[in-house]
Amino acid sequence: MKLHGMIVAGAVALASAAMSDEPDWARLMAEAEWDWRPGDLIFRNGLNDADDVLKHASDAPWATVGILRASSGGPRVVYVDETEGVTEVMLYRFVEDLTPEDYAVYRIESLSSMLEDGQQVQGPLARYALNVAFGAPFDVQFQLGNDAYYSAELIYEAAMSAGVKLAEPVTLASLAAADTELGDRVLTAAHASQDCASALVAAQKIVTVNALLRSDALTQVFPE
């Protein structure tokens, strides 16, 4: 069911066209160039400065990752915005101005949310993002388990809630750039003194997008 849900989205957009700017129909119809399912993970760059810092520190290909979910108006992406925290946008907004080479989509096959009759359900990743994490602030300390989230942490915690461990957290000090911009951000957010700074960096655990991408549980579905 390629582009499942796009007909509904198009109808809603058409009904409101007289009251708003004409929608980008090319983007609306090309926004899901794979057979998307709720729970698919979509990766891209260029949204959050903090994500870009962690991307550089871990030498990852992508910085920000979001979770696809179904809605009456078409697919939405739940992700962590540096200003708004855990929020969501329509999928076509999430990939706006991007080419197909500017994002990638992965799926946890063991948590597939497609029923046998073709009906879509949200699945555990989207449910966690909506029911547990939604509205939580951006995690400026990059710290696990503090009721705030950074990009990779949202995915890690959502999968853990369903019994899937996508990555092994590593120490902040083990990252290539942990003693530069990423380390500085963590220390500033924690208001750490010079005396305890090195101990904090050495002990803190962090999950990276790169670690998620290396997980055997993930299958790339776009580009194929």
Can you give keywords for this protein?
224 residues; alpha+beta; 6-stranded antiparallel β-sheet; two-stranded antiparallel ribbon; 9 helices; 34% helix; globular
Model description:
With 224 residues, the protein is of the alpha+beta class. Helices cover 34% and strands 17% of the residues. It has a six-stranded antiparallel β-sheet. α5 crosses α6.
Main sheet makeup: 6 strands, antiparallel
Q: Compute the number of strand runs.
A: 8
Cα end-to-end separation: 17 Å
Question: What's the pLDDT, averaged over the residues?
Answer: 80
Helical content class:
25-40%
Brief characterization of the structure:
With 224 residues, this protein is of the alpha+beta class. The chain has helices at 6-15, 25-30, 49-58, 91-94, 123-133, 151-160, 181-190, 194-203, 209-213; strands spanning 41-44, 64-69, 76-81, 85-90, 103-108, 170-171, 205-206, 218-222.
Question: What's the arrangement of secondary structure elements?
Answer:
Elements: H1 6-15, H2 25-30, E1 41-44, H3 49-58, E2 64-69, E3 76-81, E4 85-90, H4 91-94, E5 103-108, H5 123-133, H6 151-160, E6 170-171, H7 181-190, H8 194-203, E7 205-206, H9 209-213, E8 218-222
Antiparallel strand pairs: 1-2, 1-5, 2-3, 3-4, 5-8, 6-7
